[in-house]
Specification:
Blueprint lengths: L2 H58 L5 H14 L4 E8 L3 E6 L3 H6 L4 H4 L10 E4 L8 E9 L2 E8 L9 H66 L6 H33 L6 E5 H12 L8 E4 L6 E5 H18 L6 E8 L2 E7 L23 H5 L6 H11 L3 E6 L5 E8 L3
Parallel strand pairs: 7-9
Antiparallel strand pairs: 1-2, 1-5, 3-4, 4-5, 6-8, 9-10, 10-12, 11-12
Helix pairs in contact: 1-2, 1-5, 5-6, 6-10, 7-8, 8-10
Length: 429
């Protein structure tokens, strides 16, 4: 692992541990605080209700005016707004004569409450009190006081342990889940980072190998050109046939250099999406024949078998790009398979698709690498590729060109051994 990645994971790992421990400790402390608050509330709940009942009686006992009583109840509710949810005035003969914020549960239960109907009788000697629960709902209670004349004033009180309605254990569990989720997200991000770093490292290694291979590919033809040029300048070649051969060698090697440079430019353009194609209708047989003739000297006399279609095969594409695709496929076969058997090139058409196939008897391409060989700079790592020239962009360019023109380049295993590379393009009828 790279030093930067080690530092990153050390920092992230320590941060994750601190986050996890700190988060759990915080949640644990918050849970304990809430539990302590619940215990304290349960211990003083009865006292709290009794105090409210006393306040109701103490503030309203000397007040006879209805408006004044309403204002006082408003003030009590505002003062205890956290727990007090509703206020009301009740009269034995009329029921609830005024209320505000009272729940449906309380409104429906008091008219049938025997304890309230007993107000003013000897069965209840206490002048005030509180009723809990009003119904089977233990979260609601009423602090009340008799005002005389068969009237009662009361406050509806929320007796829940947590006014938010949430369970501390559920909150704690939710908090732990959030911490775990954050850690999982952090771990997933780190995993993605590792993969990205590995891809970047692999890509960098491929680029380095590509530069080395390209330097080698350019150095050989340039060295030949230099040697031939020096011989010509020194006057060592005087015979017309040898002069012509020397000039032809210089031209061929110069063409190879230009081809390598063009491949580089095409690689950049396809990567940016700026490669332009001059598409027109032409005979695929002719384009394939021209590409084959350009590389025929790379094969022995019996090392190349050509079978063209028995009719004109029209395709609408860039003829130069098609010729380059076929040359790249043939160049690949010449490097890795020509020594192990004849290479067969065939042009065919069926079901509206025109194809050029290049079939060889080489070692073949492993199934798990049949897509990877079309990646930029990728070369199968074996003894043959290590001893054979190449830059790893020929097949990549071939597929990019074909797909840009509505076709494709694929590879498959050849029965009996070897590989079959296929260029496929739409046929124009």
């Amino acid at each position: 692992m790279d030093r930067d990645l080690k530092i990153y994971f050390t920092v992230i790992g320590l941060s994750a541990i601190v986050l996890a421990v700190g988060g759990v400790l915080f949640l644990q402390g918050e849970f304990r605080r809430q539990q302590e608050g619940i215990r304290n509330w349960r211990a003083i709940r009865g006292e709290y209700m009794a105090t409210l009942a006393q306040n109701v009686q103490g503030t309203l006992k000397d007040t006879k005016d209805l408006s004044a009583r309403i204002n006082i109840l408003h003030d009590l509710q505002a003062e205890k707004a956290e727990r007090v949810k509703g206020v009301f005035l009740w009269k034995k003969s009329d029921g609830i004569i005024w209320q505000e914020g009272l729940s449906e549960t309380v409104r429906a239960s008091f008219p049938t409450n025997a304890r309230w109907h007993a107000v003013g009788t000897k069965s209840l000697s206490a002048p005030r009190g509180w009723t809990a629960p009003v119904t089977n709902n233990a979260d609601i209670a009423v602090a009340w006081a008799r005002l005389g004349g068969g009237e009662v004033a009361g406050l509806e009180v929320d007796l829940r342990d947590n006014l938010t309605g949430s369970n501390p254990r559920n909150l704690f569990a939710t908090g732990v889940c959030i911490v775990v989720l954050l850690l999982l997200v952090l771990a997933a991000g780190s995993l993605l980072l590792v993969r990205a770093a590995r891809r970047a490292r692999t890509e960098s290694a491929r680029k380095t190998t590509f530069i080395d291979n390209l330097s080698h590919e350019l150095k050989i033809p340039l060295a030949v050109v230099r040697m031939k040029t020096e011989h010509l300048l020194a006057g060592k070649v005087t015979e017309p046939e040898k002069l012509r051969a020397a000039y032809q060698t210089i031209a061929d090697e110069n063409g190879e250099v230009i081809r390598q440079v063009d491949d580089l430019l095409d690689l950049v353009r396809t990567g940016k999406g700026t490669r332009r194609y001059a598409c027109s209708s032409f005979d695929l047989n002719l384009a394939a024949r021209e590409a084959i003739d350009a590389l025929r000297d790379r094969f022995s006399t019996e090392g190349l078998k050509v079978k063209l279609a028995d009719r004109i095969v029209h395709v609408n594409a860039d003829a130069d790009a098609v010729r380059q695709i076929v040359r790249n496929l043939l160049d690949n076969a010449a490097k890795y398979a020509a020594a192990k058997g004849p290479v067969e090139v065939a042009v065919a058409c069926a079901d509206g698709r025109a194809t050029v196939t290049v079939a060889d008897r080489g070692d073949g391409v492993p199934p798990d690498q049949r897509e990877r060989i079309f990646e930029r700079f990728y070369r199968i790592d074996n003894d043959l590729t290590r001893t054979t020239g190449g830059t790893g962009i020929g097949l990549c360019l071939a597929r990019c060109f074909a797909r840009d023109m509505g076709g494709d380049v694929t590879v498959a295993a050849r029965p009996g051994g070897g590989s079959v590379f296929t260029l496929e393009l739409p046929e124009v009828t």
